[in-house]
Specification:
- By secondary structure, the chain is of the alpha+beta class.
- The chain contains 11 helices and 4 strands, in the order E-H-H-H-E-H-E-H-H-H-E-H-H-H-H.
- Helix 1 crosses helix 3 and helix 6 crosses helix 7 (145-151).
- The longest helix has 25 residues, at 117-141.
- The termini are far apart.
Length: 248
């Protein structure tokens, strides 16, 4: 059975999200008509204004812009974590309608890989055993969704899944604050980091300070802090400088 690698694609996003956020904010404070405001925000870069309203905590206007991601090569363990973010929309490959009779992809945790080839092989053999159990239950329960829905109970958390996820900017920033933290589980941290990178390509003004809470203030983990706040801030600063240099 194949080992799976994470793949993340930004498949759709709101057109000109920074302008849309600026439009929503300006409408709140202006007597002008929507058409006039739209012309104003389209005629001038809105980066400074977006920074200003976000600094004021005017976060409701961030909900007008959304981003949709296609995600593959992640585990059902990750699925259990990401669906806790309720202000999001999910479409997930069904283990009821999709049969794994011919095998399933799976994710190998880095700590198991770090133990060496023998440990990885042991893990792979365990995946093979679980697949055998799965197909045995399929034979006993029957083919199709009726058999799959109960045979899947022996599938592991490592089993690969695919999904489409849509979040608005406000929820994305909340997601990044929790899941890009160094204390987050390694897989969802890697996913959040890649999603953030893709968002930055489209709307840097909305996401350049997004990420773990220690980028913007004291560590929210308090006594459970990783103690790397200054390192994390320096790494973000260096990354932003690299992006700026690449865009020059």
């Amino acid at each position: 059975m194949p080992r799976s690698e994470m793949k993340v694609a930004l498949v759709r996003h709101t057109l000109n999200p920074e302008e849309l956020v600026a439009l929503g904010a300006r409408l709140c404070y202006s007597k002008a008509r929507v058409d006039d405001l739209l012309e104003r925000v389209s005629a001038k870069d809105q980066t400074d204004f977006v920074h200003k309203i976000m600094g004021m905590g005017h976060d409701s206007v961030l909900e007008h812009a959304s981003f949709t991601f296609g995600i593959e090569g992640v585990s059902r363990t990750l699925l259990a974590q990401i669906t806790r973010h309720r202000l999001a929309s999910f479409s997930v490959q069904s283990q009821r309608y999709v049969s794994y009779e011919k095998g399933f992809g799976y994710i190998v945790p880095p700590k198991i890989e770090a133990l060496g080839e023998e440990a990885v092989r042991e893990f792979e053999l365990q995946m093979d055993t679980l697949h055998q159990w799965y197909t045995e239950w399929q034979r006993k329960l029957g083919t199709g969704e009726g058999g799959n829905e109960d045979a899947r109970f022996v599938l592991p958390g490592a089993c690969e899944t695919r999904m489409m996820v849509t979040m608005n900017v406000r929820e994305l920033r909340h997601f990044f604050s929790l899941r890009m933290c160094s204390r987050a589980q390694w897989e969802i941290r890697a996913l959040a980091t890649e999603m953030h990178r893709l968002c930055m390509e489209v709307a840097p003004a909305l996401f350049e300070n997004a990420g773990p809470g220690c980028l913007r203030g004291a560590c929210p983990e308090e006594e459970k802090t990783c103690g790397k706040m200054q390192q994390i801030r320096q790494e973000r600063k260096a990354w932003l400088e690299t992006l700026a240099n690449n865009n020059d």
